Amino acid sequence: MSRKMKNSQLIGLGFGLTVLGLVPLPQIGAANVMIVSPNPKAVVLREGSSNPKPAIYLMWLNNGDLVKPDSETALEVVCDDGKVRTVESGEFVGLPTICPRAVRNTGSTFDSRGEDDFLKYLDLRFYTVTLLDGSQVIRWQEVNGATGYRVQLGTRQEILLDRQVDCPKVSYGGNQPLKLGVDYNFLVKALGGNNSEFRLRFKVLTEKESQELNKRIAVIQSNKGLPEIAKAIALADIYNEYELAEQAIAVLGKASLVVNQAGQSVAIAERMLGNFYLQVGLRDVAELHYRRALELAQSEQNLEVLAEAQIGLAKVFVVNGKKQEARKYLQLALANYASLENSAKKRQVDEWLRKISK
Questions:
Q1: Within its chain, how far is the Cα of 353 from the centroid?
Q2: pLDDT above 60: residue 8
Q3: Which of 56, 33, 36, 48 is nearest to 103 (CA)?
Q4: Residue 323 binned pLDDT confidence (cut-offs 50, 70, 90)
Q5: CA–CA separation, 346 vs 36, rounded Å?
Q6: Which member of 3, 74, 141, 152 has the greatest number of CB atoms within 10 A?
Q7: What is the dihedral of CA 255, 261, 266, 270, to 10 degrees?
Q8: Is 281 in contact with 23 (CB distance < 8 Å)?
Q9: What gap in Å lies between CA 311 and CA 327, rounded to an integer?
């Protein structure tokens, strides 16, 4: 097969068409500091709120938040440099004092790339993701009734891979190595079924990025004081910064399995798994994790994770074309953000509801 693409192929692989069944892959905001004391005795005053809330195990602290441990107690947190630091009892303190380097961003981890995050899902747009190496497997949502899938991978100028596969995953394996840091287009057409398409644009991690990533991972892995689930969440946060969703899924899935076998569960881990599965296009699996996060967040009385899981389900439903269900979960999240006095999130969800109603 010739590697030079016809004009029609170039338009299709160059993403000039309307996409059916597309799962957008947003760059989600990175977190700053995570509480790792198993039974934290402290209160957290979120930025913009007037009422302190009890600290929760594995809660993320953001720029602008203040934390105050109870009298004669201390609170352990892991900073964005991977090191565990102790917050002593006394007055309210912020992240510049606790973790001087924690100045990356505001906003809760894994739930927003900006004010238009949900709107990207509503408009069925795609984003760039990153592969750890050129041989990494790419997965997508299985299409009911499909007899196979035609997969194309390349640039706007040439096609590097044109293959038919039976199952919803593929690795490159072409003769020409993929160049690091270069954008590639990936297109899947279902054969039979509803003839839907899945598209994404990706790049392979550069050597410099890989070196930076390995250094940061080593700091977390060498920290013997972190519980395994906290370590996995911290690692997933790092992978998220580099848009490595599959690696985040692997580390979270392994840790969650151990936690569940021990008779414990953590809502935030389930919600994060939902986010990452949604990123790689596995909507059905994402929905299962979001629903599990809802159950756990309710039992843990964790309104923040509950609202984030509800937003996650809204994204799944809007991508699947079920706007009524999406609206229902946005309204539930809106009520929870009102209870949390999170005016910024409340305004954001209000805007999403207005857009989805048009």
A1: 22
A2: no
A3: 33
A4: very high
A5: 28
A6: 141
A7: 70
A8: yes
A9: 10
Structure tokens that stand for 233 in this block: 């969440």
Give CA–CA dist 190/329, Å, rounded: 30
To 5 degrees, how large is the angle CA 203–CA 204–CA 206? 115
Query: How far apart are alpha carbons 326 and 306 in whole angstroms?
Result: 15
Contacts of 17 (CB under 8 A, 6+ apart): 11, 197
What three-state secondary structure class fits 22? coil
Is the predicted pLDDT of residue 103 greater than 50, yes or no?
no
Dmax (CA) of the chain: 72
Judge contact between 24 and 127, C-beta under 8 A: yes
- Does the pTM of the predicted model rise above 0.90? no
Bridging pattern class, strands 60-61 and 169-170: unpaired
SS3 17: coil
Q: How many CB atoms lie within 10 A of CB 347?
A: 13
DSSP summary character for residue 137: -
Are 271 and 311 in contact, with CB atoms under 8 Å apart? no
**Token pair in block for residue 172:** 């490159």
CA distance 321 to 316: 9
325: phi then psi, degrees, rounded to nearest 5 = -65, -40
pLDDT computed for residue 266 by the predictor: 86
